[in-house]
């Protein structure tokens, strides 16, 4: 077991139109632009967006293709963003004209979730973690096992 791994710091996505994507992520979802990195020739390399103080989204321009791979493809399937109140978030999404790509549901794990996609089809699960969800129960069991 490797010790010292502390969490996922950021996810990175490629987008076709950086301006359209930044409008979606910053103006609609409320992520904050932190910084831009440029290549030696001055071209934009990536934009770093703040989700919170410990989690970020790197957005790379100049993607090729028409849309993100389908959810059945090998590789990253989606990014999950935890929310305090999924009903309130869904209401705010409607105000921003961001449609759900799947109906609001209670998942098999005991959490409520809504699904959206960015302008390039990258999928996001918006999950409200319930106090008695399977993830928290599993964490509790792991901590008890590790403490023994």
Automatic annotation (TrEMBL):
Which Pfam families does this one have?
Glyoxalase
Taxonomic classification, please?
Bacteria, Pseudomonadati, Pseudomonadota, Alphaproteobacteria, Hyphomicrobiales
Instruction: Describe the location of the VOC domain by residue ranges.
Output: 7-129
Q: Which residues form a coiled coil?
A: none
- Identify the PROSITE patterns for this entry: VOC
Single GO term (MF): lyase activity
* Keyword Lyase applies: yes
Is Protease among the key words of this record? no
Q: Which UniProt keywords apply?
A: Lyase, Plasmid
Name-wise, this protein is: Lactoylglutathione lyase
């Amino acid at each position: 077991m490797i010790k010292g791994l502390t969490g996922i710091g950021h996810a990175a996505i490629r987008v076709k139109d950086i301006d359209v994507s930044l409008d979606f992520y910053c103006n609609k979802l409320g992520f904050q632009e932190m910084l831009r990195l440029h290549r030696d020739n001055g071209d934009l390399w990536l934009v770093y967006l703040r989700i919170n103080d410990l989690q970020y989204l790197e957005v790379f321009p100049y993607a090729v293709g028409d849309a993100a791979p389908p959810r059945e493809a090998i590789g990253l399937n989606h990014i999950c963003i935890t929310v305090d109140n999924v009903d309130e978030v869904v209401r705010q999404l409607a105000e921003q004209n961001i449609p759900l790509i799947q109906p609001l549901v209670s998942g098999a794990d005991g959490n409520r979730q809504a699904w959206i996609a960015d302008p390039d089809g990258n999928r996001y699960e918006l999950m409200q973690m319930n106090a008695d969800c399977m993830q928290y129960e599993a964490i509790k069991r792991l901590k008890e096992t590790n403490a023994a």
